[in-house]
Write a structure and sequence with these properties.
It is a single chain. This protein has twelve helices and 18 strands. The mean pLDDT is about 95. It folds into two domains: about 130 residues, Up-down Bundle (Four Helix Bundle (Hemerythrin (Met), subunit A)); about 220 residues, 3-Layer(aba) Sandwich (Rossmann fold), CATH 3.40.50.10470. The strands form five sheets. It has a seven-stranded mixed sheet with strand order 8-7-6-9-12-17-18, with helices on both faces. Strands 13-10-11-16 form a four-stranded mixed sheet, with helices on one face. The chain has about 375 residues and is of the alpha/beta class. It starts with a strand and ends in a 6-residue tail after the last helix. The longest helix has about 40 residues. Bound molecules: 5-S-methyl-1-O-phosphono-5-thio-D-ribulose. 5-S-methyl-1-O-phosphono-5-thio-D-ribulose binds next to helix 2 and strand 11. The site of 5-S-methyl-1-O-phosphono-5-thio-D-ribulose has 17 residues, from helix 2 and strand 11.
Amino acid sequence: MKVEGKHYRTIWLNEENDTIINCIDQRFLPHQFVIERLSSLSELIVAIADMHVRGAGLIGAAAGYGMYLAALEAKSNKEPNKYIQEAATRLIASRPTAVNLEWAVNRQLQAMAMVSSIDEKIFVARKTAQLIADEDASYCKRIGEHGVAVIEQISKQKGGEVVNVLTHCNAGWLAFVDFGSATAPIYEAQKRGIKVHVWVDETRPRNQGASLTAWELLQQGVPHTIIADNTGGHLMQHKMVDMVITGADRVTRTGDAANKIGTYLKALAAKDNLIPFYVALPSSSFDWKLRDGIKEIEIEQRNADEVKYITGMCNDELKTVLVTPLKSAAANYGFDVTPARLITGLISERGICKANEKDILNLFPEKAE
Ligand code: MRU
């Protein structure tokens, strides 16, 4: 998508030196647009764990590039295959909830296993990393093309009046390689001249909505309003929300969806107010092994300081301030699970389906057991 009119992806191979990975360092948005250069696997793992790059699709793409860096590093190691295996384990451990991470690492391991020499492995890993990134972008574009039908229908029902979409966290292009999942239908609607306005949940504690979703919508010229996390229910009761679209970090084969903490409460409010609640995801975010999201999806718990401190711009300088009593304990659950029964539909690159195993498998028959 565009930043100040120039097209960027969130992650890409450095044009001058293809042993370096460039990414947008999201810790500084919306205040500073910083491009980070990652030249080792360790740097890339830190970038995932400390959320320089974040969001399910982007974490997957970063892991794909991480395995390429691992293959490059393995060349000077006495036991290259062992080094690659260990790199896979280290990468998978960097963040637990988004399934795209382990999906991308396993895809790289399978691809590299098809060849024997380390030079061939490097070649294959580079190609596969690019493929994962390209696929992520094209799948998100297709999510937009499918999802726009829902916005279009609501727009028609409203006689062309503005469609108000509520979203939580950032499942925009910054959470993927390009286009985004939840935002892709919105960008497609904008392209087709459908009037759309987005309610952006701020998404405490890390404020991905207020800092990232708002920034990217602003860059693309999509009308939007940032709201405190607890506002959605009130807006829904007053018919100020026509639909909700969120992303997902891991979705079971039965349609339970893990997404940023607070998503579940939005789904409950939407259900109570008969507002359609959609989850947009590429197929790489399905965890086909799982059936019960609440019991089986591991929820990341991050450092309590993310709850206690807030970073923002003050007199042209980024500052971090304490907003709680210093000695109070804080808990930082990163995600929650929205049960399938609260989800109106899943929007994937293959189309829209109901959130149940039968309908999901109609779109992905190759995943039938
Ligand atoms: O902790 P993050 O920022 O990596 O969390 C991911 C998210 O932004 C959301 O949960 C998002 O809605 C799904 S990722 C496409």
